[in-house]
Write a structure and sequence with these properties.
Number of helices: 5
Radius of gyration: 17 Å
Strand content: 25-35%
Number of strands: 12
Distance between the termini: 42 Å
Shape: elongated
Helix content: 25-40%
Order of helices and strands: EHEEEEHEHEHEEEEEH
Oligomer: single chain
C-alpha cells in the first residue's frame, strides 16, 4: 500500500505521485482515496480532469464502481496552473488525455510546494506508452502501478484491449469497448485481430 511522504515543513518543495495501469485497474479509485484522505486532514484540495471525459459525469471524477469526488473539467493543462493557486494538494485524473504541457504544469506545482497526484493509463490500446504519461512517471517521486484482473485468464492484467474496430487513439469507453488482458491474452488477441 502507498504511504504518503512525511511532510517536512522546512522543505518548500512538493512532489508528484503517479498512479498508472490499464483500464479497470483501480487508478481513479486510488486517486479518490488519496484525495479524500487529504480532505479529511483539512488540506486544501482541488481536482481536475480533461473536459473531454464526460463518461460518468460532467464535473465529477467517478471510478468504475461509482465512487466519486467533485472536480473541475479543463480543456488544457495550462488551465490547471491558473486554478490551482492556494491549494495544498492537486489531483489530476485521466492525465493521458492532456497535452504534453501537463508535465511542466505538474513540475511547476510541485516546485511551488504542492503535492500533485496524477492518475492515467500508462499504455494505449495498441500497447504503446500513452501521451505524456511516460514523462510524468520519469519525473515523479512516487509511481504506483495498479493492475486489473484479466477477463480471459484470471492473471494480472496490464493491457487495455479494445474490442471494437475503431482505430482512433482517443476513444472513451467502458466494458462494451475495452477489456483488461494479461500479456499472454493481449498478445493472442492482437495476433487473432491481425489474422482477420
Amino acid at each position: 500500500m502507498f504511504l504518503e511522504n512525511t511532510v517536512n515543513h522546512k522543505e518548500q518543495f512538493g512532489w508528484i505521485e503517479v498512479i498508472c495501469g490499464s483500464m479497470f485497474s483501480g487508478k481513479t479509485e486510488e486517486l479518490i482515496r488519496r484525495l479524500k484522505r487529504a480532505q479529511f486532514a483539512k488540506q486544501r484540495v482541488e481536482i481536475f480532469k480533461p473536459a473531454i471525459d464526460t463518461r460518468y459525469h460532467d464535473e465529477m471524477v467517478v471510478s468504475h464502481d461509482a465512487n466519486e469526488i467533485r472536480s473541475t473539467p479543463v480543456p488544457a493543462a495550462a488551465n490547471i496552473l491558473i486554478l490551482a493557486q492556494g491549494c495544498d494538494v492537486i489531483g489530476i485524473d485521466e492525465a493521458q488525455f492532456f497535452d504534453d504541457e501537463i508535465v511542466t504544469v505538474c513540475n511547476d506545482l510541485a516546485n511551488q510546494g504542492i503535492r500533485v497526484i496524477v492518475a492515467g493509463l500508462d499504455m494505449d490500446f495498441k500497447g504503446n506508452p500513452f501521451g505524456p504519461m511516460p514523462a510524468l512517471m520519469a519525473t515523479a517521486e512516487y509511481v504506483t502501478k495498479v493492475h486489473a484482473v484479466c477477463t480471459r485468464t484470471g492473471n494480472l492484467a496490464n493491457y487495455s484491449f479494445r474490442k471494437t474496430d475503431n482505430d482512433k487513439l482517443v476513444m472513451l469507453g467502458e466494458t462494451e469497448e475495452y477489456e483488461p488482458l494479461s500479456r499472454a491474452a493481449y498478445y493472442n488477441a492482437m495476433k487473432k485481430n491481425q489474422e482477420k
